Amino acid sequence: xxxxxxxxxxxxxxxxxxxxxxxxxxxxxxxxxxxxxxxxxxxxxxxxxxxxxxxxxxxxxxxxxxxxxxxxxxxxxxxxxxxxxxxxxxxxxxxxxxxxxxxxxxxxxxxxxxx
Length: 115
Known about the structure:
CATH architecture: Up-down Bundle
Number of strands: 0
Structural class: mainly alpha
Mean pLDDT: 80
């Protein structure tokens, strides 16, 4: 195995395992609300592209790192979908509902000073 491949495997292992604390936290807290679906789509597409590139280029470090990252990402997306639907909500609706509720409260007559 070449030095470049070893460096690539080490770098890929570090960047990929950096996801583990976040995934573990999401499992424990059952909270994935900070992850936007658009981020999942963009990041997943990018990781998938790197995985395809690694396969075409026959680069084991690129393949390994991106296959594991994609697996972690899919697990996190599954958690987000499961937590969103378990709460009876469409993904990302909770934040929008909270914002609307706060705006209504700020416009209510109780907040308007008397003349």
